[in-house]
Write a structure and sequence with these properties.
single chain; Peroxisomal Thiolase, Chain A, domain 1; 5-stranded mixed sheet; 4-stranded mixed sheet; 13 strands
Length: 325
């Protein structure tokens, strides 16, 4: 097995910022309520004419530029998303066209908030097996299109954005050293996208309703904490490491209370967790990708650090990767 690691990172965020104070004018909520319960202060919102694929392309171009690999030499593109421009073509194919990666295979992965780590592990396997030499992995969401802006329980949580990385061969002993993926379909009803009243054969379109996110927050909390803690522990076992070896945890940015509970359950100081939820809210699959980009940009990541990436998402799906930077 080759050592496969991250060669370059990129991100792309919409310019529009929606603050908690802006939300106070839209629904019955307050900055204090949102902040104390979620840790979120603001989030980014893509414009109507700004499709998911444009965010994905922006993140991809930066990651490619930082990787030292030319776009035309990219061999595999995987995009993690639950908010594609349309059912087809895939966002990955749209990105392929936009960046000029003509020789690449391209497809999307749907694993909700766990999408980036699912895509990362999938790409790593293709490279380690020798089928491809490099891969562009993107997590991109325009999830605010799926939000019911009358539901104060969900509309305060989410934001749009994209993160990306290029994978390739790295120095032996570095890179992605272990992976863990898991699913618990029995908890699928705790968070889902529904579309009440939709009738495909209704030619007058009188019954069509836009799909939107519904969530059972209290029930989801405990499952999320337990699944994230288990994912880290299992990934560490595979890596032959212990919790004391972890220099940094980059968790899914769903809720600051969840992150606090995971840190407590693992008995890892919260100071070792990289958190940017206050700026962006929950960007679904893109959350870890953007957080990883910012951790490197801010100099938090150091060469030789052991980094735990961990997430949970609707499905319910969870994942973790241990990376030696």
């Amino acid at each position: 097995m080759k050592s496969i690691g991250i060669l370059g990172l990129g991100h792309c965020l919409p310019e529009r910022v929606l603050s908690n104070h802006d939300l106070e004018k839209m629904v019955d909520t307050s900055d204090e309520w949102i902040t104390t319960r979620t840790g979120i202060k603001e989030r980014r919102i893509a414009e109507k004419d700004q499709p998911n694929s444009s965010l994905a392309t922006g993140a991809a171009l930066e990651a490619i530029a930082n990787s030292g690999i030319a776009a035309e030499d990219i061999e595999l593109i995987i995009v993690a998303t639950i908010s594609p421009d349309s059912n087809f073509p895939s966002v990955a194919c749209l990105v392929q066209k936009a960046v000029g990666a003509r020789k690449a295979a391209a497809f999307d992965v749907s694993a909700a908030c766990s999408g980036f780590l699912y895509a990362l592990t999938t790409a790593k396997q293709f490279l380690a097996g020798g089928m491809f030499k490099n891969a562009l992995v993107i997590a991109s969401e325009k999830i605010t299109d799926l939000i019911d802006w009358n539901d104060r329980g969900t509309c305060v949580l989410f934001g749009d954005g994209a993160g990306a990385c290029v994978l390739g061969a790295v120095d032996d002993g570095h890179g992605i050293i272990s992976d863990f993926m898991h699913a618990q379909g029995e908890f699928g009803d705790l968070m889902a996208v529904v579309s009440d009243g939709r009738e495909p054969m209704d030619q007058k379109r009188e019954l069509i309703r836009l799909p939107y996110v519904v969530m059972q927050g209290k029930e989801l909390f405990k499952v999320a904490v337990n699944s994230m803690a288990l994912a880290v522990e299992e990934a560490l076992k595979k890596a032959g490491l212990g919790l004391h070896d972890i220099d940094l945890v980059v968790p899914h940015q769903a809720n600051d209370r969840i992150i606090t509970a995971v840190a407590k359950k693992l008995e890892v100081p919260k100071e070792r967790f990289f958190i940017n939820i206050h700026k962006y809210g929950n960007m679904s699959a893109a959350s870890i990708a953007v957080a990883l980009y910012e951790a490197e940009e801010q100099g938090v990541l150091k060469k030789g650090d052991h980094v735990a990436l961990v997430t949970f998402g609707a499905g319910l799906v969870s994942a973790a990767n241990i990376v030696k930077w």
